UniProtKB/TrEMBL annotation:
It catalyses: adenylyl-molybdopterin + molybdate = Mo-molybdopterin + AMP + H(+). Its cofactor is Mg(2+). It comes from Salinispora arenicola. This is Molybdopterin molybdenumtransferase. Pathway: Cofactor biosynthesis; molybdopterin biosynthesis. Keywords: Magnesium, Metal-binding, Molybdenum, Molybdenum cofactor biosynthesis, Transferase. Its EC number is 2.10.1.1. Catalyzes the insertion of molybdate into adenylated molybdopterin with the concomitant release of AMP. Belongs to the MoeA family.
Length: 418
């Protein structure tokens, strides 16, 4: 595309979407294209999303369960030992006063038991009787103490994590109905990129090819190594071919670079050639202004998306947090990603009529956000220390003590932030 044609295209383009409006738009199209519901074994659903409420198949616990090692006793002591109950067995009833059975933690409490005497608070007489004083509070969990049979424990849209998997197993489930995880692909654009070794001689190291798949996985996608392609040659036919190939299998294709209208920026004409429609084409945000999201409907009727990430690394991650995260939440049937609130410990300048997303490190105990250095759109040093982006709205600036929204990055627990 000539520089003159590019200038004409830019002049005719609609104004950029506001940042909040852009998030709402992409979330809505994601919900409209929510992925199909599948049934999966518990061992396979980490990172998926519940498509049905999680309910209990029995009361929790299903039967009275002793919580200590000791003696289940009936009547007043001393008690004569008449048996043993281990976890996993069904005990016979205690039918006579003055009798006891040895019982292990997790075992079913026998019918007729009045109390459980802790092993460490008991003693034995020379003739083998058990003595001691049971505590006044029963040492067992009652049926239904945690939940009644059929009770809803978690709603539709809950992300599945190890705790949810364990809860589902305790409820008696072997598999659950979940949304299929989105499959993503990544196309890296730019003849100037190196994929190995140090930068030099006019060429820079590709930082997004290795990093973006990891971000996408943390946002809930599956990304196979074969789904990462590039650098794609800086020609329109190469861009069209790469996009067509990636869209054959992926629900979402992310691209890096080429979102403007320079002499080797071919993403826009490639999307036009493929019949895509823009959901968002540029966002009034700094950094990351040229981010975009496009929607395509294949011959099979299936909806697919292309997220154009700017080539500058921090801007690309901003686009993931701003557009891709809400889209994926919609596709998975989850709520819109919530913004947290934190108090600024330092100033953050405004960006005029644009929203400013500024890198911050969070102290979650104190509820504060600390602005970081090295925050240029091409820099990654600040991002490597950050927990998220503080949101400074249009026409505003951030001052110490201000409470501002924060877009949290999908970091694993304990990685950064207090």
């Amino acid at each position: 595309m000539s520089m003159e044609a590019a200038a004409t295209d830019q002049a005719a383009a609609p104004p950029p979407a506001g940042w909040e409006e852009a998030r709402s738009r992409v979330y809505a199209v994601g919900r409209a294209a929510a992925l199909p519901v599948v049934s999966r074994p518990l061992v396979e659903i980490d990172g998926h999303t519940l498509a049905e409420p999680l309910t209990t198949r029995t009361p929790l616990p299903a039967f009275a369960t002793v919580s200590v090692d000791g003696w289940a006793v009936r009547g007043a002591g001393p008690w004569r030992i008449v048996g043993q109950v281990l976890a996993g067995g069904v005990p016979g009833p205690l039918t006579a006063d003055g009798t006891a059975v040895e019982i292990a933690t997790g075992a079913m409490v026998p019918d007729g038991a009045a109390a459980v005497l802790r092993i460490e608070e008991s003693s034995r007489t020379p003739d083998g009787l058990v003595t001691g004083t049971p505590r006044p509070v029963p040492e067992w969990r009652l049926p239904g103490e945690e939940a009644n049979a059929g009770e809803e424990l978690l709603p539709v849209g809950t992300p599945v994590d190890p705790a949810v998997i364990g809860l589902a197993a305790s409820c008696g489930h072997d598999d659950l109905r979940v949304r299929r995880q989105p499959r993503a692909a990544l196309l890296v654009f730019g003849d100037e990129l190196l994929t190995a070794g140090p930068p030099g001689a006019g060429r820079v190291r590709d930082a997004l090819g290795p990093a973006v798949p990891a971000w996408l996985r943390r946002y809930g996608c599956t990304v196979d190594p074969s789904d990462v392609v590039g650098p794609v040659a800086d020609t329109l036919p190469a861009h069209v071919a790469a996009l067509s190939g990636a869209l054959a299998d992926a629900d979402l294709v992310c691209t890096t670079g080429g979102t403007m209208h320079g002499p080797v920026d071919h993403l826009h004409p490639a999307l036009e050639a493929l019949g895509a429609e823009y959901v968002v084409n540029t966002v009034a945000v700094r950094p990351g202004f040229p981010m975009l999201l496009a929607r395509l409907v294949g011959a099979d009727g299936r909806v697919r998306f292309v997220a154009g990430l700017p080539g500058n690394p921090q801007s690309a991650v901003l686009a993931l947090a701003s557009l891709v995260a809400p889209l994926l939440a919609g596709l998975a049937g989850r709520p819109m990603p919530a913004l947290t609130q934190a108090e600024l410990t330092g100033p953050i300048p405004g960006r005029g009529s644009f929203t400013h997303l500024a890198l911050v490190r969070l102290d979650r105990v104190a509820g504060t956000a600390h602005p970081l250095r090295h925050v240029g759109s091409a820099m990654l040093r600040g991002l490597a220390q950050a927990d998220g982006f503080a949101v400074i709205g249009p026409g505003a600036s951030g001052e110490p003590g201000d409470r501002v929204p924060v877009v949290s990055l999908p970091l694993l627990p304990g990685e950064r932030g207090a």
